[in-house]
Specification:
Blueprint lengths: L3 H22 L39 E6 L8 H17 L3 E6 L9 E3 L16 E6 L2 H9 L5 H4 L4 E6 L4 H4 L17 H12 E3 L1 H15 L3 E7 L23 H8 L7 E7 L2 H10 L4 E2 L15 H17 L4 E4 L3 H10 L5 E5 L2 E5 L13
Parallel strand pairs: 1-2, 1-5, 4-5, 7-8, 7-10, 8-9, 10-11
Antiparallel strand pairs: 3-6, 11-12
Helix pairs in contact: 2-11, 6-11, 10-11
The structure holds 2-acetamido-2-deoxy-beta-D-glucopyranose (NAG) (5 copies).
The site of one 2-acetamido-2-deoxy-beta-D-glucopyranose has 7 residues, from helix 6.
Keywords: Membrane, Transmembrane, Transmembrane helix
Length: about 375
């Protein structure tokens, strides 16, 4: 039998422990956190971010960074692949209350094309002096392996260093959202589709650089001139005539493209429509110019592969063109997407699923939506 005396001591001890724990960690009783000062190092991010985060997690208590990294000389994948990587690393940072940065210097510094919007993600290596760090690459199969693990595992245990530089080229959102350890921080994802997740993050964190913003405005006023935009993103892949694409995967046969011309034909009226076509293939472009004179509008710049091309000024111009092309695709009234992250992501940001068409190597051009296996692999 426990005596009354021992029971009282026990209760007092437990109470004292609760008070101490609450004092140090403040996690026992959910409440809105007082926003801690940056100098304390406890909450190093801006206030709005913690509005629904009732507890101070251990991970949020130090300056931990996730950096999407694509440096010169590395294999990172093309622009669509990199966008997937940026979203994946953003979500890891978001789940763990860490800071997020982007370092893309191949083929050139990409802040010449895109800049931060809601918070500063610009990479500054001076920030990381005296911090432990590691670089890891998860390309293709390695990324798919990691995303499977992150449906359950603790992210910090995979990436314990202060700064993790990660190179990823796969879609992670659908996986990481399943991780129960982060259900609170990722609660905002719960009701978002993969498309909405991408679009929400992209619109929130990216704006065109002043240079591209200016080119975009010019394009709208001098080329679009208030007409409806009928667009296609046609990826052909392997191309013996362009060194950048000589070793790319064959994505589509050129003879399929007549289906695109047939659809465009319905809009061959310069009083109402403009046709905007982006492609990785010079022959497709030439053919479009020939077929739709005075209706086809374009962004200047070379066709190049941002990952396979040489790290030169020309590839940098191709990089800026891809980013501006994709931005315009996201504003189209009608959009034909092919097997390409660039087209897919443009469609996500465009948002609506009306006027969306898909063209694949082994399927005819037809209407599609985000759920359709024409649009993206069903095993995502
Ligand atoms: C996570 O991202 C969402 C959407 O951008 C944002 O609302 C939220 O504040 C972020 N949370 C953290 C901890 O960064
Ligand atoms: C890094 O650590 C060294 C040695 O401890 C110190 O002298 C230096 O000031 C530190 N630099 C920064 C930027 O904190
Ligand atoms: C993840 O692991 C770290 C280190 O072991 C721990 O501090 C943290 O609380 C864990 N996070 C979650 C969400 O369980
Ligand atoms: C589109 O219309 C122009 C005349 O405005 C014509 O020259 C051209 O052949 C037409 N293109 C197609 C593909 O029908
Ligand atoms: C796509 O699938 C989601 C969930 O399975 C569903 O809520 C949505 O209505 C579907 N959209 C279309 C256009 O079929």
């Amino acid at each position: 039998m426990i005596s009354k005396y021992k029971l009282t001591i026990g209760i007092l001890l437990i109470l004292a422990l609760i008070v101490l724990y609450e004092f140090y960690y403040g996690t026992l009783f959910a409440r809105k956190p007082g926003l801690l000062n940056r100098e304390t190092g406890l909450f190093a991010r801006k206030s709005g971010l913690f509005a629904t985060e009732p507890k101070l997690s251990v991970e949020g208590s130090k300056d931990k960074y996730f950096v999407y990294s694509c440096r010169r000389g590395m294999v990172c994948g093309g622009w669509g692949d990199r966008q997937k990587g940026v979203i994946a690393v953003y979500l890891m940072a978001n789940a763990t209350n860490s800071q997020f940065r982007i370092e893309i210097e191949k083929p050139c510094d990409f802040t010449s094309a895109l800049q931060p919007k809601s918070f500063n993600w610009i990479f500054n290596k001076n920030e990381f002096i005296n911090r432990s760090s590691e670089r890891r690459e998860f390309i293709d199969g390695h990324g798919r392996e990691l995303r499977d693990k992150l449906t359950k595992d603790n992210i910090t245990e995979h990436f314990p260093r202060d700064v993790s530089y990660l190179t990823i080229n796969s879609e992670f959102s659908h996986y990481i959202r399943q991780n129960k350890l982060y259900s609170q921080n990722l609660a905002w994802l719960k009701d978002l589709s993969m498309a909405e997740t991408f679009a929400t993050i992209w619109r929130d964190i990216m704006v065109l650089s002043p240079e591209l913003q200016k080119r975009y405005q010019q394009f709208v006023t001098t080329q679009v001139t208030g007409k409806k935009l009928i667009c296609a993103q046609i990826r052909i892949g392997r191309d013996p005539n362009n060194a950048d694409f000589r070793d790319d995967f064959p994505i589509m046969n050129l003879d399929k493209i007549s289906q695109v011309w047939n659809l465009f034909m319905k809009y061959n009226d310069s009083g109402k429509y403009r046709i905007f076509l982006t492609t990785d293939n010079g022959d497709v472009r030439t053919e479009a110019i020939k077929r739709f004179p005075g209706k086809l509008i374009e962004i200047d710049g070379p066709i190049g592969h941002v990952d396979r091309g040489p790290e030169t000024e020309k590839t940098c111009d191709a990089f800026k063109k891809v980013i501006l092309d994709q931005h315009i695709l996201s504003t189209c009234d009608v959009l034909i997407s092919s097997w390409s992250g660039i087209g897919r992501h443009a469609a996500y940001v465009r948002g609506k699923e009306t006027g969306l068409y898909c063209l694949l190597r082994d399927r005819d051009l037809g209407p599609c939506n985000f759920n359709s296996s024409l649009f993206q692999p069903s095993n995502w």
